[in-house]
Amino acid sequence: MTLSIDLPEQALARLRAEAHRRGISVDDVVAELASQLPPERGDVRRRRLAFVGAGASKNGITHQVDEALAAGFGRD
């Protein structure tokens, strides 16, 4: 596939220098850089964080502690 892009001279110079350093073409450097891009958002599975909501349960005494603090527990 052919692609034409306008790059700042400094970016093109860096691509050329990297290609020369590695003994490959600028096309190969660009292709390698493109392959390192993150996947499209549609391909990314959203991770579920196990600890989210851990302290939000109404089971246990958490709600009692909140009520005691709201009522002024420990005020002098």
How would you summarize what this structure contains?
This is Ribbon-helix-helix protein, CopG family. By secondary structure, the protein is mostly helical.
Keywords:
mainly alpha, 3 helices, 76 residues
How far is the first residue's CA from the last residue's CA?
A: 76 Å
Percentage of β-strand residues: under 5%
Q: If you compute it from the alpha carbons, what radius of gyration comes out, rounded to the nearest whole angstrom?
A: 28 Å
Biggest sheet record: none
Low-confidence stretches: none
What is the structural class? Answer: mainly alpha
Q: How helical, in percent, are the residues?
A: 40-55%
Average residue-wise pLDDT: 82
| DSSP summary, beta strand count | 0
Quickly count the helices. 3
Q: Would you list the SSEs in sequence order as H and E?
A: HHH
CA-based shape: rod-shaped
Protein name: Ribbon-helix-helix protein, CopG family
Organism: Nakamurella alba
Write the layout of secondary structure elements.
Layout: H1 9-22, H2 26-35, H3 62-70
